[in-house]
From TrEMBL:
It is a single-pass type II membrane protein. SUPFAM superfamilies: P-loop containing nucleoside triphosphate hydrolases. It comes from the Eukaryota. It comes from Acanthochromis polyacanthus. This is Galactose-3-O-sulfotransferase 1a.
Amino acid sequence: MTGKQMRQWKSMCKGLVLGTLLTSCMILLYCLSTPQAHITLPEVPVPYSCAHRSSQLHSKSTINSSQRNSGQNCAAKVDIMFMKTHKTASSTFLNILFRFGEKHQLKFAFPDSRNDFFYPSFFERSQVKDYKPGMCFNIICNHMRFNEPELAKLLPMDTSYITILRDPAELFESSFHYFGRLVPFTWKIPGDDKLTEFLLDPSKYFDPDSYNSFYLKNLLFFDFGQDNTLELDDPRVEEGIKLITDRFQLVMLVEHFEESLILLKDALCWEMDDLLFFKLNARKGSTVSKLTPELRARSLEWNAIDWKLYQHFNQTFWKKVDTYGRQRMAEDVAELRQRNKEMASICIEGGHAVEAGNIQETDMQPWQPIGEKSIMGYNLKKNLDKAHQKLCRKMLMPEIQYLSELGVNLWITKLWGHVRDIINW
Ligand SMILES: *[C@@H]1O[C@H](CO)[C@@H](O)[C@H](O)[C@H]1NC(C)=O
Ligand SMILES: *[C@@H]1O[C@H](CO)[C@@H](O)[C@H](O)[C@H]1NC(C)=O
């Protein structure tokens, strides 16, 4: 047996072990946690708003920014549905939302026992931790498969729906890297460069009925609750896009993250302070795409629905920027970048992200994809002054740890982490 065959054989074995484990885990989880999902909950009308007075009174603090808001004083919007799509910098955005929620003492609708709403099954109200009909929630932001009617029965009527998209070629590459091993049909793709091999002839390997196959085709469209295997000219594609257009007040773009945040600040009447962030959950060496122009084209062709979706919302995005004012946008983005840079020099040891092995505190270790340690994290600077210590810590804290701190019980997620540690995945 050559070394290569050996490696392939080993990777197949790992795949099998993992597959078996995962399947068993899933069955166990469903047994443990779905019975309540089938109870029909009584329908109680949702309130108009879940903002309390204190946060309504919070308004723009400087005359300058309110002048910019055409002279209108506004209150920060606190009722928010953030549709967290996969592999779209959404961990970074969640950190922003968590801090905003804490600042205004908002109530989050969190999942129970794990960090998503039983993705990939459709969202249901009953999956919300401690949910009872008629309760008031301000923010929902964990991974879910979007299900509008069910969300409308949970969230107040004034909720702002926000989401974020990413260039589908990049997203596909990232998803292939992160989730590929969880999709059994990838195990039989030969060679070391499975991504290229797959894109050269996707239909040879792709099986829509295979476990987890949605991770590798039109994942965005799937996350929004739509059918990711439709033909591009199917009328349901247009309908799906229209549904998202009608429901979401703001669709941000990963490629223009800062501009997106400024649009968000404008739409929700937030402050610049609310937008400060460090890039979380970034993959090592991910700033430059490894896709050649040919592979990129193939990837877009393969994810044609997501490409159409992305192009559509790219158009609306830049129309919004035009309305906001290009010059004004450029100034605000420059200000935000400057503020983030200042924060980085205050909070981060060495000023930048480091590989997992060089992160000293376990609290700061990010969650890793199956089979490797490629996600970067940070070391908090030592000897920080009191004023910054809390903020810096929160800004750098990976999602899972922050969720725990906010009181989410993550026993399934944690158990899974321990299993992986034991089999040294
Ligand atoms: C607006 O901000 C500038 C500095 O950014 C300041 O010089 C000016 O006085 C402010 N205007 C008002 C009306 O507060
Ligand atoms: C997004 O829109 C801008 C402005 O209309 C355009 O220049 C750019 O090429 C578009 N990008 C994509 C990926 O469609």
